[in-house]
Amino acid sequence: MIYVTGHTKPDSDSICAAIACAALLNARGHDAVAVRQGELTRETQFILALTDKNPPLPCPPLKGEKVWLVDFSDKNHGPADLDDATILGIIDHQPLGNVTTAAQLEACIWPVGSTCTVLSSLFVLENIAIDKSMAMLLLAGIVSDTVGLTSPTTTERDVRACNQLAMQAEICLSTFIRDLLTIKTSIEGIDAYTLVNRDMKVYLWGDGRIGIGQIELATFNQVQDIKPAFYAAMLKSCVDLDLDLVVLMLTDIRSAVTHLIWHGDWGEHLSHHAENGEIVMTKTLSRKQQVWPWLQNILSVSGVSNQAAIY
Ligand SMILES: [Mn+2]
Questions:
Q1: Which residues lie below 8 Å from residue 166, measured CB to CB, with a gap of 6+?
Q2: Residue 201 C-alpha to ligand 1 middle, in angstroms?
Q3: For residue 163, how far is its CA from the centre of ligand 1 (angstroms)?
Q4: Do residues 128 and 169 lie in contact, with contact meaning Cβ atoms separated by under 8 Å?
Q5: What pairs with residue 250 in β-bridges?
Q6: Which CATH superfamily is domain 192-301 in?
Q7: Sheet of strand 257-263, all strands in order from the earlier edge strand to the far edge
Q8: What's the sign of the alpha-carbon dihedral 227, 229, 230, 232?
Q9: pLDDT tens-digit profile of 44-81?
Q10: How far apart are CA 3 and CA 14, in angstroms?
């Protein structure tokens, strides 16, 4: 059996890509199954119900198993025992991570907005039929990861794939985008700690550990009442995840404005740039392309070295 897994804290792209990649491998005649590293978001559950797909099972122990990675290639975002598995392939659109392999592997890593974009091209390339449900699944992954084709990570290839897939799924693309974004931004009834942590990515900087979380919103009013609770939640995350800094991106995906709030020992470096305890970033949707590079620069100019101390 080949296990296909996306990253920890799976988003919709990572789950949809795992299911699609397993289907691709099955069509090639292999025995492959999608698995997940964490709970499904509401949006992902909605997509799976819509496309009539079974939720992937939790990732089993991988020691001695064969795996394909989708939507990540960094050990940090993989299962703890990934080193004990044989990585056969990677399909991704993130910057190349630090996994290494002893044997040959198949890797398809493109600078596009979504792993599902890469996968949809592979289906076409290999002449594997895309049924309505698979078209909608791939489309959902792309729409989710590119925030309805508006994120700066969006490329011409993503747009082309979406138009093609919408035709195959026989749906109206703009209606589909609107419906999916509404589900994506619904946070009602979810507690602050879950919201802060469910999409947290941990980055290493020198000897420090930085967590950047993101909550996508349709309007900032959605978080007005819960904001004080975010600070308590970020404090708890610092302790639970041994972080020097937690940054939370509150992103209005319609206007592409992000408000940053933060907590942790390194927070003072951000406070210099704040107004009323927050930093407002216009035209900012992307953690990896915008906020993380910006934060690295802030830390550098604040004198926080990216070099680990030598003991
Ligand atoms: Mn992705």
A1: 135, 139, 172, 173, 176
A2: 13
A3: 19
A4: no
A5: 215, 259
A6: DHHA2 domain (3.10.310.20)
A7: 201-205, 208-217, 245-252, 257-263, 279-281
A8: positive
A9: 999 999 999 999 999 999 999 999 999 999 999 999 99
A10: 14
> Ligand 1 centre and the CA of 16: distance in Å?
10
Ligand 1 centroid–CA 43 distance in Å is 14
pTM: 0.78
Contacts of 73 (CB under 8 A, 6+ apart): 90, 92, 94, 96, 97, 98, 99, 107, 109
d(CA 267, CA 138): 39
Q: What is the DSSP string of 110-136?
A: -SSS-HHHHHHHHHHHTT----HHHHH
Q: Please state which CATH number belongs to domain 2-183.
A: 3.90.1640.10
Residue of 267, 278, 276 lying closest to 304 (CA atoms): 267
Q: Mean pLDDT, 10 residues at a time, over the chain (311 residues)?
A: 96 98 98 97 95 97 97 95 96 95 95 98 97 98 94 95 98 93 89 95 94 93 94 97 97 92 96 94 93 96 79 56
**Exposed, middle or buried: residue 295 (CB in 10 Å: 0-12, 13-18, 19+)?**
buried
For ligand 1, the distance from its centroid to the CA atom of residue 65, given in whole angstroms, is 24
Model pLDDT for residues 92-115, shown as the tens digit of each residue: 999 999 999 988 999 999 999 999
Residue spans per domain, the chain: 2-183, 192-301
